[in-house]
Write a structure and sequence with these properties.
heterodimer; A: 436 residues; alpha/beta; ten-stranded mixed β-sheet; 19 strands; 24% helix; globular; B: 258 residues; Rossmann fold; four-stranded antiparallel β-sheet; 12 strands
């Protein structure tokens, strides 16, 4: 440990560690090991290959987040379009304020039979929860190591278990809001048993300068389907660190989509592992960044078994001095014949000072596979703008149309039909603010 | 004074010089076009035909170094590209651009309402717009399927040109500039496009038909034909001038303009 921010987290662990869920259980020992491992490696920095474009250590050194306090006053959601975006969707709702469950704002009274929804602390003695928390993918160690920090300090979170063959009747909407400044560490667990089906919406909203550290551990049983749409829009002085880890049994299906309007620094990690044949995973997203925002998508899709399909597409627009990063890896193991793996990253730079770094990778050890990856970085076509303007469309409107058209290819992939229109409106509104 | 001279000039070009990439392409063009007239501009490749059309539309990189262009009494050079469109200038492109992700329908509605807004007119709602588009699309054989597809993406050459004429028909410009509308069209497609253009001829509207070949002018019959060579109009005549050019070619004109 040789940096201030790493030391801060270790101090936080020493101070609040005893009050965290699982004291006296297996988790207490696990937490102690985790903080030790985290302290030894320290916060990641750019000399590590998996963090080449994102200096988390420097960002957290500068921001020096203390643990977020328990929020006492009434919660006021930020007045942003993102804050109300999903409000019109009929959903079960779970609200976390400063990383802690807020009962008053949540509504989970009418869950169907076979859907078990708990707080993290209430499932720690259950084997499935323990297995998910202790699981490691290990295909990108430097990236996954940051999960140790979450394991050591996770204070709350949602644990969802859907029993065999049960379908969640309407989406479950998770809202995470930073009402006070400080760091929160949240762990969400989702187990969908054989044939179960669910839709999850996530809103990550900022009000104050905060570090949101969220790990979501997913396990899909055979034939299970999880649709997941996430929206992130936090303040410019915030850091968002999220990791999604999913294991997919045979013929299961994960459809995940993220719209990132970002914060100061965002890093979204996805680790997908196929454990049974005939499964499908899509991990797609769109992003729109401006000013000095930084957004890093890091994704690993591990085709460990034959006959699975995966799709990763991220499309983004960058204005101002914004920086985008895409690092994606598709691994096809020697036995994983008949794999179909697709990966694409495309970015549009709206200003001369915006930048994009893309590193798509394929690691293929099987011979009978279909894999493709691609990466493009470009700017709006002057000819296209001229063509639209020559029909009377003002320049700002022409640019907005072209930006929306560019992002739409990705937004089309969002798994909830209702969310697509919402995402389009958000991007359109975002562009209006940029042009103004 | 003939009746033609008494009519008001819609487009008045005086001593127009223009550069592209630092190279002088237009070398002093004078042209008067009145409402109701169709002018053909013919000339060999590189004579400045397309440059003239882009200068009129206001394309970036086409620099006017000398001269004036007045459109309906206003200084055209002072107007932005979209302002010119709202004022009634329409350029039918030789190569219409493909715009992935923007459906033809969305594009048409955005363009029409932007122009109406710029002119202080009420914008059309979805129902009224749809009715109008269908009415305009039918004679041009533009199907609902085409309207739902991304603008010009995957359209054949004929479909692209028909879509251009549909835009023209919907936007009802005062001045239509058709840049090599015949290029890439077989005879049947050419006939459909020409019929669409002819249907738009009216006493209030002027047209400039730019073409290399006389063939198009069999279908869109001009009132006046100009020959452009090395950036200047070197000859002006009636529609018979086009037939003459068809026989003799442009060989005689290159030398005249030097």
């Amino acid at each position: 440990m040789n940096d201030k921010a790493t030391a801060n987290f270790v101090t936080a662990f020493e101070t609040v560690g005893n009050e965290l869920p699982g004291a006296g259980s297996w988790l207490a020992r696990r937490r102690a090991d985790a903080i030790e491992a985290f302290a030894e490696a320290g916060l990641p920095h750019r000399r590590l290959e998996d963090w080449k474009y994102t200096d988390l250590r420097q960002a957290l050194d500068k921001a020096a987040f203390a643990p977020a306090p328990r929020h006492e006053a009434a919660v006021i959601l930020p007045e942003t379009p993102a804050a109300t975006a999903f409000a019109g969707i009929d959903a079960h709702r779970l609200v976390f304020v400063n990383g802690r469950f807020h009962e008053g704002l949540s509504d989970t009274a009418r869950l169907p039979k076979g859907v078990e929804l708990h707080r993290l602390a209430d499932v720690l003695s259950e084997q499935w929860a323990k297995a998910l928390i202790e699981r490691r993918m290990d295909e990108a160690r430097q990236a996954e190591n940051i999960v140790e920090l979450n394991t050591a300090l996770m204070a709350d979170g949602m644990a969802l278990r859907i029993r065999k063959g049960v379908r969640l009747d309407k989406p479950l909407h998770l809202v995470f809001v930073a009402a006070d400044a400080g760091a929160s560490h949240t762990r969400n667990l989702m187990l969908l048993e054989e044939g179960a089906e669910a839709s999850i919406l996530e809103s990550h909203l900022g009000g104050k300068a905060a570090l949101a550290d969220i790990v979501t551990d997913i396990e899909l049983g055979a034939d299970a389907t999880l649709r997941h749409a996430k929206l992130q829009d936090e303040t410019a002085d915030s850091v968002h660190l999220s990791t999604l880890r999913a294991t997919l049994a045979g013929k299961s299906r994960l459809e995940s989509f993220t719209l990132t309007l970002g914060c100061g620094l965002s890093r979204a990690q996805n680790f997908i592992r196929f454990a049974g044949e005939g499964a499908h995973a899509s991990v797609d997203g769109a992003y729109a960044l401006r000013a000095k925002q930084h957004f890093d998508t890091f994704s690993v899709v591990d085709h460990a078994v034959p006959g699975c399909t995966s799709h990763t597409m991220f499309k983004g627009v960058l204005d101002g001095e914004a920086e985008g990063v895409f690092q994606g890896k598709v691994i096809v193991r020697p036995d994983a014949q008949k794999t179909d793996g697709r990966q694409m990253t495309q970015a549009l730079l709206l200003s001369r000072d915006a930048s994009m770094n893309a590193k798509p990778e394929l690691e293929i050890y099987a011979d009978d596979v279909q894999c493709a990856h691609g990466s493009t970085v470009g700017e709006l076509s002057k000819d296209a703008i001229f063509y639209l303007r020559s029909r009377g469309i003002p320049e700002a409107e022409a640019r907005r149309l072209l930006v929306l058209a560019f992002l739409d290819e990705a937004i089309e992939l969002a798994p909830h039909e209702a969310s697509r229109g919402i995402f389009r409106d958000l991007v359109s509104g975002w562009f209006g603010e940029v042009a103004a | 004074m003939t009746s033609r001279e008494r009519m008001k000039v819609m487009l008045e070009i005086r001593n127009l010089h223009a550069k592209v990439d630092g190279k002088e392409i237009l070398n002093g063009i004078d042209l008067d076009i009145r409402a109701g007239e169709v002018h053909a501009i013919m000339g060999p490749n590189g004579s400045g035909k397309s440059t003239l059309s882009y200068v009129l539309a206001g394309r970036e990189g086409y620099e006017v170094t000398e001269g004036t262009i007045r459109f309906k009494g206003r200084d055209l050079m002072e107007m932005d590209v979209d302002e010119r469109a709202a004022a009634g200038v329409f350029l039918a492109f030789q190569y219409p651009l493909e715009i992935p992700g923007v459906t033809t329908m969305t594009f048409l509605k955005t363009a029409l309402n932007a122009q109406r807004k710029a002119r202080g007119e009420e914008e059309l709602d979805a129902v009224r717009f749809l009715k109008l588009v269908r009415e305009k699309a039918k004679p041009l054989n533009v199907t609902d399927d085409m309207l739902k597809r991304a603008l010009n993406v995957g359209y054949s050459g004929g479909e692209k040109k028909r879509a251009e004429v549909l835009q023209m028909s919907l936007l009802e410009p005062a001045l239509c500039v058709l840049d090599e509308t015949d290029s890439g069209l077989d005879i049947d497609a050419l006939k459909t496009v020409a019929e669409g253009v002819n249907a738009l001829r009216s006493p209030e509207r002027a047209m400039i038909v730019i073409t290399h070949y006389q063939r198009l002018l069999d279908y869109i019959v001009p009132d006046v034909v100009h020959v452009l060579s090395k950036g200047r109009i070197v000859k002006t005549g009636g529609k018979e001038l086009a037939l003459e050019l068809e026989k003799s070619g442009y060989a005689g004109y290159g030398a005249d303009a030097a």
